[in-house]
Amino acid sequence: MVAKKDILKWLRKGAFFIAEDGEVYTSEGRKLAQRINKRKRCTHGDPRVDLCHEGKRTSIHVSHLIWMWNTNCVLPDGFEVHHRDEDPTNNNFDNLIAVHPLDHGKLHAEVKEEVPF
């Protein structure tokens, strides 16, 4: 298993880089294919890329990679990346916020239900 700190090390040493358009490239300039991994009960997809470096392989959300690239920090354990405009394909760094899952759910709540008592 590849830890997030290892992915950050790969980014820091230039094994991968993020272009201004949000595309992910290897140090040799090869563009990595983004794929949608649709989860159950989810009407949209969050793009992912597969990273392979020094014999290790992992898959990561592009939004997580862009957040780590721009902050130069590991995404805290248990945290998620929220898209401010709720478009999972808009991975502009200004559109991304690291949030706790409980807060993330609140950001996506459309209607607050009244408690019946």
| 3D shape | globular
The number of helical elements comes to: 3
N-to-C order of helices and strands: HEEEEEHEEH
Termini Cα gap: 48 Å
| Order of adjacent strands in the largest pleated sheet | 3-4-5
CATH architecture: Alpha-Beta Complex
Q: What is the CATH T-level topology?
A: Homing Intron 3 (I-Ppo) Encoded Endonuclease, Chain A
Beta-strand content: 15-25%
Tally of individual domains: 1
Low-confidence stretches: 113-117
Under CATH at level 1, the class stands as: Alpha Beta
| Strand count | 7
Helix/strand/pairing category: alpha+beta
Helicity range: 10-25%
Major sheet size, sense and barrel closure: 3 strands, antiparallel
| Radius of gyration, whole Å | 16 Å
Oligomer: single chain
- Mean pLDDT comes to 86
Could you walk me through the main structural features you see in this protein, from its secondary elements to its overall organization?
The protein has 117 residues and is an alpha+beta fold. It has a single domain, classed as Alpha-Beta Complex (Homing Intron 3 (I-Ppo) Encoded Endonuclease, Chain A), CATH 3.90.75.20. The protein is built from 3 helices and 7 strands. The strands form 3 sheets. A 3-stranded antiparallel sheet has the order 3-4-5. Strands 1-2 form a two-stranded antiparallel sheet. Strand 1 and strand 2 (24-26) form a beta hairpin. The model is unreliable at 113-117 (pLDDT under 50).
